[in-house]
Design brief:
By secondary structure, the chain is an alpha/beta fold. It has two domains: about 190 residues, P-loop containing nucleotide triphosphate hydrolases (Rossmann fold), CATH 3.40.50.300; about 140 residues, Histidine kinase-like ATPase, C-terminal domain (Heat Shock Protein 90, 2-Layer Sandwich), CATH 3.30.565.10. The protein is built from twelve helices and 13 strands. The strands form three sheets. A six-stranded parallel sheet has the order 5-4-6-7-3-8, sandwiched between helices. A five-stranded mixed sheet has the order 9-10-11-13-12, covered by helices on one side. Helix 10 links the parallel strand 9 and strand 10. Helix 7 packs antiparallel against helix 8, helix 9 packs parallel to helix 10 and helix 10 runs antiparallel to helix 12.
């Protein structure tokens, strides 16, 4: 039986995803030409059969001619559709001057013009894909501006826009920035069908191959995370404004509680998105440097001082040798360990943070309080394992899992000791 799609939806052509909403901005990550063919051929076939106008802007490792040949295998009258103006398949060079600065506003205006022309010609709307492999480091910031502009422009329009990014061309922060600018991310099978001349990025992390059920689950997490961020930010901003303008102490206290709760919920969303990316390996590769590690660690501590103003945090950071590490991930590790100690440790005693460089780089966080039971210790670094503590401060049980993955990526190890005197997490790794 043929599926019936309402006016606000169109068939996707993507296995496990029956339909797409008009006004969607999607992202595909890929590792090979086969990944591109496997997703984009059925994606465009569905659009053509739904009487949509289509634009496919191709680049390495799948050229426009190769894309045309692959689509023609499942759309026998593709030549006639091209001649009639229903689909255009072009290489990147036909649209972008690689040597010239990007003009995001002009590109988005051109996209909207194409949508209006498609509707005027009697088509259901405009479906697009662009391979972003051509975007280099000099253009990446401008291209993110373009992605932001597309993301803001497509809702409410008869547009379905998909961007394709190579796994191996995105650094961790870039991958995060890309995910935040799309409604849905479709991760390809990382590490499979890789070009022989394309070296794999070794992270040391164990990333399981996703099955179909896990794939849909991770997509749900990505959608949930994206959809929650904006309303949470609005709640936090409104609460902050109310706290500043509150006429009495009671109103200000309520606004402050709302603000803390919104910040806590935002942190939970970030943890979910981190784990989703780690499972698929899309934002795990490290950017190691020998600079500013002490500053990054100190900043992580100061952020939590603001969050826990009534708690004492004793800090001893002595980094007198260069350490080869990803300072952002190291700061995230410390933040998670310190937050864990502040949540579960005794509120009447200080939490101690130490970092040193002797034979190895060592980072430790210690607190007093009830010892961690032996049975809990065995699975403490697994995802979704929570300890006891203030229910308003508890997370999803992902913080220590993320810590363990960061440690593994740095080829280091985490050790835990816990008794009546103290609970201490210690990370150690070679100086590099």
């Amino acid at each position: 039986m043929q599926a019936v799609f309402h006016r606000d939806h169109a068939p996707s052509g993507i296995p496990g995803l029956p339909s797409l909403s008009w006004g969607s901005h999607l992202c595909q990550t890929f590792g090979s030409a086969e990944d591109l063919r496997n997703l984009l051929v059925p994606y465009f076939k569905a659009g053509l059969e739904n009487n949509e106008r289509c634009l496919w802007v191709a680049d390495a490792p799948l050229s426009a001619e190769q894309a045309r040949e692959a689509l023609a295998e499942v759309v026998p009258d593709l030549g006639a559709r091209e001649a009639g103006g229903q689909i255009e398949i072009r290489d990147t060079d036909a649209f972008y001057d690689r040597g010239a600065p990007l003009q995001p506003a002009a590109i988005v205006a051109g996209l909207i013009r194409r949508e209006q022309e498609a509707l005027a010609a009697g088509f259901q709307g405009l479906r697009t894909n662009g391979n972003c492999a051509w975007v280099d480091r000099l253009n990446f910031s401008s291209f993110l501006d373009y992605e932001s502009a597309v993301h803001a422009s497509v809702p409410g329009r008869r547009l379905i826009c998909m961007c394709s990014y190579s796994h191996d061309c995105l650094e961790p922060l870039e991958a995060t920035a890309v995910m935040e600018r799309h409604h849905l991310v479709l991760p390809g099978p990382r590490g499979q069908h890789r070009h022989e001349d394309a070296p794999a990025k070794s992270t040391g992390m164990t990333v399981p191959e996703p099955d179909a059920e896990a794939f849909l689950s991770e997509q749900s997490i990505a959608i949930l995370g994206h959809d929650l961020r904006n309303p949470l930010a609005a709640i936090a901003a409104g609460a902050k404004l109310l706290r500043r303008r509150g006429e009495d102490a009671g109103q200000r206290a309520i606004a402050e509680k709302i603000e803390r709760s919104a910040d806590h919920m935002a942190a939970l969303v970030n943890d979910l998105l981190d784990v989703s990316r780690m499972r698929f390996g899309d934002a795990v590769s490290l950017r190691r440097t020998r600079d500013d590690l002490a500053e990054a660690l100190s900043h992580a501590v100061e952020e939590l001082r603001l969050t826990y103003p009534d708690r004492q945090i004793d800090v001893q950071i002595t980094i007198d040798q260069p350490v080869l590490a990803d300072r952002l991930y190291m700061a995230r590790m410390l933040s998670n360990l310190l937050k864990n100690a502040l949540t579960h440790g005794s509120p009447d005693h200080p939490v101690t943070v130490k970092a040193s460089t002797e034979d190895v780089f060592a980072l430790s966080v210690a607190n007093t309080g009830t010892p961690i039971a032996a049975a809990t210790r065995e699975r403490l670094f697994s995802p979704f394992i929570r300890g006891s503590g203030d229910s308003d401060r508890l997370g999803l049980g992902l913080g220590l899992f993320i810590v363990a993955e960061i440690a593994r990526a740095h080829k280091g190890q985490i050790e835990l000791t816990s008794d009546e005197d103290a609970t201490c997490f210690t990370f150690q790794m070679p100086l590099g």
